[in-house]
Design goal:
The structure holds two protein chains of two kinds. Chain A is an all-alpha fold. Helix content of chain A is 57%, strand content 2%. Chain A has 22 helices and four strands. In chain A, the strands form two sheets. Chain A has a two-stranded antiparallel ribbon with strand order 1-2. A two-stranded antiparallel ribbon of chain A has the order 3-4. In chain A, α5 packs across α10. Chain A is elongated, with a radius of gyration of 35 Å. By secondary structure, chain B is an alpha+beta fold. Helices cover 24% and strands 32% of the residues of chain B. In chain B, β2 and β3 form a beta hairpin. Classes of the chains: A mainly alpha, B alpha+beta. At the A-B interface, α3, α4, α5 and α10 of A face α1 and β3 of B.
Chain lengths: 604, 178
């Protein structure tokens, strides 16, 4: 006898596995193996994949408000194979919902819920409930904007339940606020409670299925009987492999699962649930005020009750579809309704420009957060990382404090701006344009300073014909621009050493008729033109934003209502020094990153 | 021809069984391959996360000739996704010997306990398994397989810089980790 056989005999004498396997595999399939029966097995196979990838994710995921997003980012962007595992889990969860719907449809069509299989139908519905529970809890775990806001809406809906609502909500959330306890609770449900429930229900579901066997199609040839193994097993396996191939394809195409910006309770976010909950989301739009419960609880509850009652209502022994239309049609009408509501929701979003703009902003922030996090996340969490980043927080500060008057890139309103456009501010091209035509509408043109600064190479309009005017030579203009634009130490220098030295001496000798340079100048004493030492640098902007009324920028008259002609206000009362520093860094780097928009000045 | 049909039927079943076997194997591999990659990923990166070199410690004039001083190695640290600034990564014993600064890792080469200096100045000892070392870190007794690990030092702008590295434990020769 061959060696494997001897080992098998040894094992069988002790474990009795052969009898068990025979019972599992030789199950007769009445009417023969069919492709229609594959959905349940495909669901089980996808569940195996979800359990495997889920366990892998657990080796790295850390549920807390500070670490959840960070660890998911680490899985997605730093760990080899992390994007693949998370992507499979992400798309697998959607496959579970789709396959569950298909499985339910097949069972309804074949009349497999009928006596004596009622219990099995109910176990199946319970499994569907657990599957949706998995989806809901899993969606929150990355603790990103998408999951956070969608889940908050869901738990708030639970809170609207009559009588026990607020208690149920507090129980789910682990308190009255969202936080680390919400995460740990959802995590425990997702990786402990629901898997255990699912396995117990699934074992019962399969055991009952084995007890009663398949429900063959009404017109099937019942003299034909296949054993479960190998034919039906092969069908089931092929279905499982096809699903797996689709999941791999989706994961490869999207390069894993998306990760939105870290959850920020203080932000505006266009919240939407995962696509298979969109129908419920859309339903809420139709029921307002006291009728809201109709959309949140009554309609979904009635649908569930109807499904539950189906085997009790449809009691005729026949499985022929024609005689069950009244019972089966509502299910498919319901599914069609779900499809219609989903489409309505997607369609309304696609045509909603406010939503699209909010979505675009959210995507931009997600992209930025994901890029910043590659360098590591501080122990205080990803929100702190964003709050200390000039690009992320500086932009918010600019939008809130500066964009009412200034324009910078996409920020601010070009039509309504009353302060200079900052695109290219501090670069040599900007300096050249400024000293050539200070009153362009993107510079002083729309400000109270219009007409205050003369051009260096265009004679003033009110010049008397006998006043001599010598335009500044092109090389000198370039030299001044090279010098001024090189004052920010972190920016690349422009021009050569000789030009910058020359530029500095022109600034010191000629510009100081009105401007200050290193504390000297303003020969006319008008106190209108700013200090040029450090002009264009982060330090200069920091000083200016803190208060323009210091010798570092515009001096004391700047904030004097009478004399200043409407200068920019001081911000040291509104913004912390840290925020002013971030804002200055943002302004300088964005200004130098955005190309100058006005037409280039002409030179003879 | 019942016999022919039986052969056909049994051949067909065998074929189906082979298909089932290979299909199952494909399914298992499709899950096992990403799983292996994922689980092994941190092993492949082990040690690379730290990558510390030349950490500034104490002022040179804070060291007294021949007297070992324990100083902390403080630097930025990356642990998986977390980046922490100024963390104590470990410590070294610094001893000034004329122009030279000798740095000895406080990590016992036996099993990684923290080596302390004897109060009488006679050298170092490990409190766990009683390995002993002389003032130069040479092994004098106990289970340790090698001398204390010396680290390179240099002086810059009045401060002692240490080239902080970690070595595998319980092996006779020094093997750097990472």
């Amino acid at each position: 006898m061959s060696r494997p056989h001897r080992v098998g005999d040894w094992l069988d004498a002790r474990a009795g596995h052969r009898k068990l396997l025979r019972e599992l595999l030789e199950e007769p399939v009445a009417g023969g193996a069919r492709w229609a029966y594959v959905y349940g097995s495909a669901l089980t196979l996808v569940f195996v994949m979800q359990a495997t990838t889920g366990l892998l994710l657990m080796t790295t995921y850390a549920p807390s408000a500070q670490t959840a997003w960070a660890s998911v980012h680490y899985i997605s962007y730093s760990l080899s194979g992390g994007w693949l595992v998370r992507g499979l889990h992400h798309f697998g969860s959607q496959a579970m919902v789709v396959l569950a719907a298909l499985h339910l449809s097949q069972v309804a069509l074949f009349g497999a819920y009928k006596k004596p299989r009622e219990m099995n139908w109910w176990f199946g519905l319970a499994l569907l409930g657990v599957t949706l529970g998995f989806s809901l809890t899993g969606y929150l775990l990355p603790w990103d904007q998408k999951g956070y806001w969608a889940t908050r809406v869901a738990t708030n809906i639970a809170g609207t339940m009559p009588v026990a609502g607020s208690s149920v909500q507090a129980l789910l959330q682990g308190g009255h606020e969202y936080g680390s306890l919400t995460l740990t609770r959802f995590y425990a449900a997702h990786v402990g409670l629901f898997p255990a429930l699912l396995v117990v229900l699934l074992v019962a579901h399969i055991a009952l299925f084995r007890k009663h066997g398949v429900t063959p199609a009404a017109r099937a040839d019942l003299t034909r009987v296949d054993a479960f193994y190998p034919k039906q097993v092969l069908y089931d396996l092929v279905a499982g492999l096809v699903v797996l191939a689709v999941l791999f394809a989706l994961t490869l195409r999207e390069h894993g699962a998306p990760l939105d910006a870290p959850a920020d309770p203080a932000s505006d976010y266009p919240a939407r649930p995962e696509w298979y909950f969109l129908s419920l989301f859309q339903l809420l739009k139709y029921f307002e005020g006291r009728l809201e419960l109709v959309g949140t609880l009554l309609i979904p509850g009635l649908a569930g009750a109807l499904l539950f009652a189906l085997p009790l209502l449809d009691r005729a022994p026949t499985t022929a579809l024609r005689q069950r239309v009244a019972f089966v049609a509502p299910i498919f009408l319901g599914l069609a309704g779900v499809g219609l509501l989903t489409w309505l929701s997607m369609n309304s979003d696609a045509h909603d420009s406010t939503f699209q703009a909010a979505r675009k902003r959210a995507d931009g922030r997600a992209k930025l957060a994901n890029r910043l996090a590659l360098a590591g996340i501080p122990p205080s969490g990803p929100l702190d990382m964003l709050r200390n980043d000039p690009e992320a927080h500086g932009e918010e500060l600019f939008a809130k404090n500066c964009a009412g008057c200034h324009v910078l890139g996409d920020l601010g309103d070009r039509q309504k701006a009353t302060a200079p456009t900052l695109d290219g501010w501090g670069t040599s091209a900007w300096v050249v344009a400024m000293i050539h035509d200070p009153d362009d509408k993107t510079r002083f043109g729309n400000t109270p300073y219009k007409g205050q600064m003369p051009s260096v190479d265009v004679p003033p309009k009110d010049r008397k014909s006998d006043t001599p005017f010598t335009p500044m030579p092109h090389e000198d203009v370039q030299a001044v621009a090279a010098f001024l634009s090189s004052q920010e130490p972190s920016a690349p220098v422009s021009g050569d050493d000789v030009a910058r030295k020359k530029g500095e001496s022109i600034v010191r000798d000629r510009c100081t008729a009105c401007h200050m340079y290193k504390g000297d100048g303003d020969l006319g004493g008008s106190e209108l033109a700013p200090e040029l030492a450090g002009y264009g640098s982060i330090a200069w902007v920091t000083a200016q934003v803190t208060t323009p009324a210091t010798p570092a920028t515009y001096r004391s008259k700047a904030v004097d209502d009478e004399a200043s002609k409407g200068h920019m206000p001081r911000f040291d009362g509104d913004l912390s020094p840290t925020d002013i520093d971030l804002l200055a860094r943002f302004v300088v780097s964005r200004a130098r990153g955005v190309a100058l928009r006005s037409a280039a000045p002409e030179h003879p | 021809m019942p016999e022919g049909n039986e052969v056909d039927e049994s051949g067909r079943r065998t074929f189906l069984k082979v298909l089932v076997g290979s299909g199952s194997a494909a399914f298992a591999c499709a899950l096992a391959a990403p799983a292996a990659l994922f689980v092994a990923a941190p092993v492949a990166h082990a040690g690379a996360a730290t990558g510390q070199r030349w950490v500034r410690t104490v002022r040179l004039d804070g060291l007294r000739e021949g007297e070992p001083k324990k100083v902390a190695i403080v630097a930025d640290h990356r642990d998986a996704w977390t980046r922490t600034k100024d963390v104590e990564l470990g410590a070294v014993w610094l001893t000034k010997r004329g122009d030279r600064i000798v740095a000895l890792s406080t990590t016992c080469p036996h099993l990684g306990c923290s080596v302390s200096a004897n109060a009488d100045g006679s050298g170092f000892g490990c409190p766990c398994h009683t390995s002993t070392f002389d003032t130069n870190g040479h092994k004098t007794g106990g289970p340790t397989p090698r001398d204390m690990d010396t680290l390179d030092t240099r002086v810059e702008a009045g401060f002692v810089l240490v080239d902080f590295r970690r070595y595998r434990m319980s092996v006779p020769e020094r093997v750097e980790i990472g």
